[in-house]
Amino acid sequence: MVGMNEPVLARLQQLMTLREEVETLGSGGPWIPAADWTDEDTHLILHLDIPGVSADSLELLEEGSTVTVSGERPALARLIGGDRPAGAFRRSFTFPQDVLPQTGEAQLRHGILSVRFQKRHPTIDVHAEDLDAHPAE
Amino acid sequence: MVGMNEPVLARLQQLMTLREEVETLGSGGPWIPAADWTDEDTHLILHLDIPGVSADSLELLEEGSTVTVSGERPALARLIGGDRPAGAFRRSFTFPQDVLPQTGEAQLRHGILSVRFQKRHPTIDVHAEDLDAHPAE
Q1: I need a labelling partner for B74 at 20 to 30 A (CA). Which of A48, A67, B50, B88 fits?
Q2: Which of B25, B85, B112 comes nearest A34 by C-beta?
């Protein structure tokens, strides 16, 4: 898509992900793992719930302002009932703040994938943190 | 509830769980982890997706034909967005087949809790399994 800039591509990606999510609401469709972002002043961290997924199957693809995580876990043999998703998943995210390209460091622990990205504009708010830690009562 | 027999109690428990699930559909309500049952001839196994939950916080309660699992994981500090559930969860299950009381053995690995229960009536189907493994083509 020559000529489209990164924000437009990122928005398209978001819309495609949204459409996938709506299409699979309440059905036994594709697996879309739950995710959170946290802010650690110098880094942004993406947390993804992927219990039972092996590190070998994971792929991270960073493109401009988006990052896409994909992987899979095998379906259980001799299944007699339940609602756990299985098979392949793919989910794209737009970085909530600017990050430095290709700084992502991934770790898989207790079924949660954490990826740390270095922020382009680190937050300096030591005093604000002190205030938050001891709110006036 | 003196006088109510176990099947009735189990059914009530199921209805209560169902109501909880319906009430929290699509909302940021209580966390209801996904679960599967598998059959391993001599055992039934309950698989529960609980990434990030520590073994210390887990409780299993077996009552007649139901088993209830509860636990929690802490909310992330400095959260700036996302959809991962956090806090306490509790989910009850009716055993899909009869099990021997108090035979459950739990294991927590890669964010999945597996609990093995000994079946009251083990399945003996070696020949059927052989046929399944090599279907006529």
Answers
A1: A67
A2: B85
Q: Nearest CB to B111: which of A40, A51, A77?
A: A51
Count structural domains, chain A.
1
Residues of A in contact with B84 (CB under 8 A): 34-36, 47, 49
Q: Does A125 score more than 90 pLDDT?
A: no
CB atoms within 10 A of CB A127: 8
Domain of B92: which CATH number? 2.60.40.790
State which residues form the domain around B114. 27-125
Task: Name which of A25, A38, A82 is nearest B80 (Cβ-Cβ).
Answer: A38
pLDDT one-digit tens code per residue, A62-105:
999 999 999 999 999 999 999 999 999 999 999 999 999 999 99
Q: Which helix (H) or strand (E) holds B19?
A: helix B6-24
Place of tokens 């708010």: A125
Contact residues, chain A, for B52 at CB < 8 Å: 49, 110-112
Q: Is residue A78 a part of any domain in this protein?
A: yes
What pLDDT band is residue B29 in, cutting at 50, 70 and 90? low
The terminus-to-terminus CA distance of chain B in angstroms comes to 55
Q: Is residue B75 part of a domain?
A: yes
In a domain, A137, yes or no: no
Does B133 fall in a domain?
no
Distance CA A81, CA A112 (A): 24
pTM as predicted: 0.73
